[in-house]
Design brief:
With about 400 residues, the protein is mainly beta. It is built from 4 helices and 25 strands. The chain starts with a strand and ends in a 33-residue tail after the last helix.
């Protein structure tokens, strides 16, 4: 059964009420037509609950806009949803990526995440390439996908909206990694499910790093909004080596937009539920709206939190990651890079959930605190205990995670 407008509906009931499901819900393909967004194909999803989101086919198959009953969930940056043709990823000394950074989800990878880095190219066989330069967060988010399909699927009286695409990140004498992404959401619900598969189609042993940069904006993020997570240890804080409390912005409570704010990045060690899941959320109790991200610890063993409270760039990042915040070089030194041989695969499964109303916020908080209670102190002393990440070499298919 599909719940629409507070009533349980059969497929026959829905068919009888309108000439097309698209009157209530659906998924359709469109193309943006102006400015630097011109030419970007988008899939628009509507679930019938007031949830609407778009998937950028030509921007790594990432989720761009997301709103619920007129309230924005996803973050819109000044850069906009720029077409990759207008971006020089290699430019600005590795920071060109920032000129297209926007939307609810920016996928980071497929062979590099976090800050810019130039890695040795000894795993490739080409005399002209001594190193591989990586800009911030990798190339995949600005690579157009091949659209495999989209539409609606009925299973009895239950309807699922879906899309699937393949993003190929490849070069001659280098990596040949393919991301296959499937996004599903049931009509009448507020849960978006992403299923990713990353496969090495090439014949070089290739590094793989992966992160979901989930960016939640105003009004979910506002003065007094709360960050909820089953934190068992605050591992690292980028600003801890300076005056830790200088900006007076704790990890768990958001301020109003600030002038001249310097971004804060945290890494937390999280507990999991019986299914191995690690939920995190940002909630606005005053408006009764929140957003939850549920990932698997065996796939994303690290969780980062990005606070960018700068006026005009106001956003909170929830970031499940395959690697510690220490970056690419440290991952190589610690033996924590994932190495994929030809045909090897890693899979990732994440759920985005709208928390609509006080009851759903309370239920999410109960789920999270039932795993672990986060520190009440807003500036807990970081442990700097970056737990070793095992099982990173070739030979492991990783179908159960990393």
């Amino acid at each position: 059964m599909v719940e629409l407008y507070g009533e349980q509906r059969t497929r026959r009931d829905i068919d009888a009420s309108a000439g097309s499901l698209s009157q209530f819900a659906g998924v359709r393909l469109m193309t943006l037509g102006d400015g630097t967004e011109r030419g970007v194909r988008m899939l628009e999803f509507r679930t019938g609950t007031g949830l609407r989101f778009t998937v950028m086919v030509d921007r790594g198959f990432d989720v761009a806009e997301c709103e619920y009953r007129g309230m924005a969930i996803g973050w819109h940056s000044p850069a906009g949803f720029k077409h990759p043709a207008y971006l020089d990823y290699e430019g600005e000394n590795g920071l060109g990526w920032l000129r297209s950074f926007s939307g609810l989800l920016a996928t980071c990878g497929l062979d590099h995440i976090l800050f810019k880095y130039e890695e040795p190219a000894d795993h490739y066989q080409y005399r002209g390439r001594d190193s591989v330069p990586h800009g911030i967060h990798g190339r995949v988010a600005n690579t157009p996908a091949r659209l495999s399909g989209y539409g609606e699927r009925w299973d009895g009286d239950e309807c699922t909206l879906w899309c699937e695409g393949v993003v190929s990140q490849a070069t001659v004498f280098g990596e040949d990694l393919h991301l296959t992404r499937r996004i599903e959401v049931k009509v009448g619900t507020n849960e978006i499910r992403l299923h990713d598969s990353v496969v090495n189609r090439g014949f070089y042993r290739t590094p793989h790093m992966y992160m979901y940069h989930v960016n939640v904006g105003h009004p979910v993020v506002a003065e007094g909004s709360r960050y909820l997570a089953p934190i068992t240890d605050v591992v690292w804080a980028a600003h801890a080596g300076e005056n830790y409390r200088k900006q007076n912005v704790p990890y768990h409570t958001m301020p109003a937009p600030q002038q001249n704010f310097r971004e804060q990045v945290w890494q937390h060690e999280l507990g999991t539920n019986a299914a191995g899941e690690q939920p995190v959320a940002i909630v606005n109790d005053r408006l009764g709206i929140g957003f939850e991200v549920v990932s698997r610890k065996d796939q994303f063993p690290c969780m980062l939190q990005w606070q960018n409270m700068q006026a005009g760039l106001y956003v909170l990042g929830l970031e499940p990651s395959t690697n510690h915040v220490l970056g690419h070089e440290a991952a190589r030194e610690r033996g924590e890079i994932i190495w994929l041989e030809h045909g090897e695969e890693r899979r990732y499964d994440v759920t985005f959930r709208i928390l609509a109303g006080a009851d759903e916020i309370a239920a999410a908080e109960t789920r999270i605190t039932g795993i672990a209670r986060q520190p009440s102190e807003g500036f807990p002393e970081p442990s700097n205990n970056h737990v070793p990440l095992a099982g990173r070499g070739g030979g492991d298919t990783g179908k159960g995670g990393v």
